[in-house]
Design brief:
The chain is an alpha+beta fold. The chain has two domains: 97 residues, no CATH class; 66 residues, Histidine-containing Protein, Chain: A (2-Layer Sandwich). Helices cover 62% and strands 13% of the residues. It has four helices and five strands. The strands form two sheets. Strands 3-4-5 form a three-stranded mixed beta sheet. α1 packs antiparallel against α2. The longest helix has 65 residues. It is elongated. 10% of the residues are buried.
Length: 193
């Protein structure tokens, strides 16, 4: 399969195809010359020398094509290294900005502010609508209590608390309480008259 590089066919592959075609043509010519020398009573050594020279030319063409491919791959690797270095630098800058933002939040986050923020987020979330989940905050640690119908709802409440600025840790004390199944009344026996 040919690979496109800047809209052109990969130069290493093109060189390889040309070298293979040249080797076939030279091989046929060399073989024909060797056969004609042998047929004309030429020296076997001369025919072997010609065949060896031909093989050497073919090998050199293969080396040249492979060297071109290697150079192209080296250039691609260098480009990838530069892109990786730029991405790593961007990641480091983003992490620095995150650390600065966290430090600002932590400096302004008091327990009462964190409490109000967690409670507001819990009340505003549709998945928790109608559930009694409460939060207590001490030194940035949020303790959640209450009852929910399933594990997914419990995990949602914990995620909301963890995602609140100023929260350092969440203690999950939420119980899973399945709703009671409704009791079906027993039908009365039918009167027979």
């Amino acid at each position: 399969m040919e690979r496109q590089v800047d809209g052109n066919v990969n130069h290493g592959q093109r060189a390889g195809r040309l070298a293979a075609g040249a080797r076939r043509a030279l091989g046929c010519a060399g073989l024909g010359l060797a056969l004609s020398l042998t047929a004309c009573g030429g020296d076997d050594r001369e025919a072997r020398l010609l065949a060896a020279s031909q093989a050497m030319e073919e090998a050199q063409q293969e080396v040249d094509a492979a060297a071109a491919t290697v150079e192209q791959r080296r250039a691609e690797v260098e480009d990838a290294r530069r892109e990786l270095a730029a991405a790593e630098k961007e990641l480091a800058a983003a992490r620095d900005r995150l650390a600065e933002a966290r430090a600002r939040v932590d400096a302004d986050a008091t327990d009462p502010l964190v409490f109000r923020s967690v409670q507001r987020r819990l009340l505003e979330d549709e998945a928790l609508d109608g559930l009694a989940i409460s939060a207590q905050v001490q030194s940035g640690v949020v303790t959640l209590t209450g009852a929910v119908p399933d594990t997914a709802t419990r995990q949602r409440a914990v995620e909301i608390a963890r995602g609140t600025p100023g929260v350092t840790r969440v203690a999950d004390r939420i119980r899973i309480q399945r709703p009671a199944s409704p009791v079906k009344p027993t039908p009365l026996p039918e009167k027979t008259e």
